[in-house]
Amino acid sequence: MSIFNTFHVAGSALTAQSMRLNAVASNLANADSVVSSDGKPYRAKQVVFAATPMGSAAAQGVRVAQVVEDSSPARMVYDPRNPVADEKGYVAMPNVSVVDEMTNMISASRSYQTNAEVMNTAKQLLLKTLTLGQ
Amino acid sequence: MVNKLDSAFFLQQQALTLRANRQQVLAGNIANADTPHYQARDFDFASALQKAVSGGGEGSLRLAVTAAGHLPGSAESVPVRMMYRQVTQASADGNSVEMDVERAQFAENAIHYEAGMTFLSGKIKTLLAALQA
Fold this sequence. Notes:
The complex is a heterodimer of chains A (134) and B (133). Chain A is of the alpha+beta class and 134 residues long. Chain A has one domain. Helix content of chain A is 46%, strand content 24%. Chain A contains 2 helices and 4 strands. Chain A has a two-stranded antiparallel ribbon with strand order 1-2. Chain A has a two-stranded antiparallel sheet with strand order 3-4. In chain A, strand 1 and strand 2 form a beta hairpin. In chain A, helix 1 packs antiparallel against helix 2. Chain A is elongated. Chain A starts with a helix and ends with a helix. With 133 residues, chain B is mainly alpha-helical. Chain B has one domain. In chain B, helix 1 runs antiparallel to helix 2 and helix 1 packs antiparallel against helix 3. Chain B starts with a helix and ends with a helix. The interface between A and B is large, with 38 and 33 residues.
């Protein structure tokens, strides 16, 4: 039944987009975390999507291939009263771009909605198929 | 009689199978709207249906018939020739999914699927009426 595959495909996209949303939430929550678990400033995390066959070659789902850390340099903020400031008075802040993260969030939530709608359509078609001949 | 029923439903059955297949392909395109380097794909429904009805699905898998008692079974799903979609506005990450196009095709395909189902329902009702007459 290839319509069931549509559920798998849309479901994989829902999972991937929710992981992306999770990364955005983590980045936004830690936008001001000057010290993370390794003692260095927090680094923005981004998910990398990759297409993956589901059931048949025609059905291409999506999966999160890896979660990468943004390698751009830390944002230097002058704050000599901060206990983690260097000798010149600068504090290395996380390289999270709040604007980027907000657009990322909107994009992820829109994609999530679209795939939920795809699932709904597939469900309607399947239910209609069940009433065939009645 | 069963043979006749089979041939009465054959065209609609093939059409619905292909529509379901296409639904799955389009869902894949929508799912991969944010995947870098993903190429949107689709197939030509009209030619695929023509091939399916004429029994010559591209590279269709058929069982070898080597003895008189063998049944010529064939793979359930009709293999179709997948093609990449032509992009009008390419994106910088090499992804060729255009959400508006995909959504429109998806909705169109769903309606065609429902239409196919309605035709099939009508056919079943007609045959039932003939049986009860």
